[in-house]
Amino acid sequence: MQLIKKTFTFRRIFYFFILILILIISLLFAFINLATNAVEVSEIKFIGEATFPTGLSFQKTEVGGLSGITYDEKNDLYYAISDDRGQKANTRFYTLKINLSKGSLQNNGVAPVSVTKLLNERGQSFPAGETDTEGIAFSNQATVFISSEGDAGKLINPFIKKFSVTSGQEITTLPIPNKFLPDKTGEQGIRNNLAFESLTITPNKKHLFTATENALIQDGPAAKPNLGTPSRILQYNLLTNQPEKEFLYKTEPVAPFFNLTGKFASGLPDLLALDDQGHFLSLERSFTGLGFAIFLFKVSLEGADNIHTIDSLLAVNAKNIKPVHKKLLLDLRTIDVLLDNIEGLTLGPKLPDGQRALILVSDNNFNSLQRTQILAFKLKIETPLIRLLRQFLPYISF
Questions:
Q1: For 253-303, what is each residue's pLDDT tens digit?
Q2: Rg for the chain, CA atoms, rounded
Q3: What sections of 206-348 are H helices per DSSP?
């Protein structure tokens, strides 16, 4: 009888230690995932719209052409870049205040605070026609990076430069790989007005990303009705200010709808880094003949091939290249809003319920038939820690 009791006790101790070991291994794997996995966007909810009419004047400039927007969390301010090529006023960005204190955006909830003129390395205004500023990203050092598409037709190169938020003075220029630069043959580089629209910086401020709105000339065709285009994402290391990786991003084919004008445009106008592990929101925008089609995707670089050594996708078997992974999160045609030419997006502050705001802005092209449109969304983001707690405590709401 004593032997049976000892055996039974030994088995209980043995199974207890096995259970503890399994628990330790599970937690170990969970914390490994915690360190490496990305955030997940589980919900996007529309919470309001505000608009500026075309022709709005502020500090002797016409507010318009807002093609990119970024958020300064410390000061609760937004910086929005204008793509005016110096025709209306000097190359500039606007500082905006957006009121989301009640968890929604009202039509009077956006106001310009200031306008900052950009100055080149010589401390002078950029000459008219030299820039086509489209992307902007706040760097947390009272500076912003700004991208310009240049002008391929005039062989004006695109650029990515860092400027002071307060003075607008140019501080640094990032080198652009040669494959992106237009040349006299017209067989290489960016397409006109389809270059570096997007700009974003990872939360740890170590990497900057931009992307071509459409394919480089040597990579494939521009987007057409029912045909997507192979864009490139370009990654910079901000510790060295050098480009280090490139990835293939395929835009979605979009069908035109009652396209009586024959005009069609489609591409990738902006990216937004969600974490430091290569996960983004991407904004795809198309003019379909009758209004705009706007899509938000979750994008992952995980498993995508680095194509920085490939100068031309047409010169290789592109079918063997793994592009970035995309997941459709929202077709904005499903919200009850007449969409304009949405081109920029940024994360905003935490809303009263603890969720993050997402802000989108439109480029009105200084066209009297359009308007500057600011859309606000509530973005429900689950961090790896929340997903871990949900796994072990499924009956508790987080």
A1: 988 876 656 678 899 999 999 999 999 999 999 998 778 999 999 999 999
A2: 24
A3: none
How far is the C-alpha of 151 from the C-alpha of 211, rounded, in Å?
16
> pLDDT digits over 83-105, tens only?
999 999 999 999 999 999 999 99
11 contacts: CB under 8 Å, gap ≥ 6: none
Number of H helices, E strands in the chain: 2, 22
Task: Copy the structure tokens of residue 218.
Answer: 């040597």
Contact 336, 326 (CB under 8 A): no
pTM of the shown model? 0.88
Nearest partner of 196 among 165, 154, 152, judged by Cα: 152
Q: How many other C-beta atoms lie within 10 A of the C-beta of residue 316?
A: 12
Tokens standing for residue 200: 């974003």
Q: How far apart are CA 26 and CA 387, in angstroms?
A: 14
Which amino acid makes up residue 152? A
| DSSP structure class, residue 205 | S
CA 288, 268, 162, 156 torsion-angle sign: negative
If you count them, how many residues does the chain have? 398
pLDDT of 182 over the 50 cut: yes
Give me the amino acid identity at 269: P
Q: How many CB atoms lie within 10 A of CB 29?
A: 10
- What tokens appear for 316 in the block? 């290789």
